[in-house]
Amino acid sequence: MSFNRLVIPVLKIGISAGILAYLAIQAQSNAVFADLVDRPKRWGFLAAAACAFLTAVLLTLVRWYYLVRALGLDFSLREALRLGFLGFLFNLAPMGIVGGDLLKAVMLARQQPGHRAEALVTVFVDRVIGLYVLFLVALAAIHLTGMWHLDVPSVQWTCQGVVVLAVAGTIGVIVPLAPDLTRGKSTEWAGRIPGVGPALKRIILAVRMYRLKLPVLLACCLMTVAVHSLFALVVYWIAGGLYAHHHRLDTHFVVVPVSAATQVLPINLGPFEAALDILYADIPLPNGSHMARGQGLVVALAYRVISLGIAVIGVCYYLGSRRELSDALHEAQREPSNGPS
Length: 341
What we know:
Strand content: under 5%
Structural class: mainly alpha
Oligomer: single chain
Number of domains: 1
Number of helices: 14
Order of helices and strands: HHHHHHHHHHHHHH
């Protein structure tokens, strides 16, 4: 095993463990865990959260299915669900194991000979849409709730960060979809880059194919609004199932997208929990009081437990695809050294 393959996973685990340990200590100092055991639970809310979570995951897989079909690839919804749940499972896997997005791209490419670049692009565009709409939902919620008026440093930084990222995301989305003013010359230049040129050219051409599929992209964006709305409901219902006094639903349309955006970091656990815990404690409740530090961590951990329950579907697919997965994992693990080919 190379030095990087050994050290980087260890660092990721160490960072995650450090963040979670710090949050747990903060929660313990407020007796949050002890209080949780004796506190009555509203199980109906927790069951509703689990159902909403599963619905949101299914919508993301349907979105990816339409993005693949938009490029003319022969792909069934059943196969999208299979590869999607396998990807969901591997996104929750321990550090150092191939990520779910890369696994989906490799398995799709194996099914589509000669369309490797297109397979990679579908996963990339799917992730970009999810992240971009995430910031748009948070931006709309910030303005509708008037949250930028709160004189709280963490909230002010959050609002400013969402605005910057939403503007940057808009520019990043418009540029590849805009007409090519060089009339294809820029693509040809990219194709002549030593080593990576031919593969890079195919990727650029695959991305530009979506220019002719704007109705599909719009439909995928609308589905993504529903996805992020459902995830806000998930956290809201978890909080309602665990605590009598918690934040309103409109607040969750800001808190949840911002916390979820931290998951783009190459660390599976920690950032989401930390962001949710900080915002939960800093934003005042409707009655003017505040949730205790650590209660956001408890809600985030319950969110993780539900996601693990849904990942069981991926385990079932895994048991039926072990040989195919073994070959795909070996291929995916070689991807970093193969470049964009």
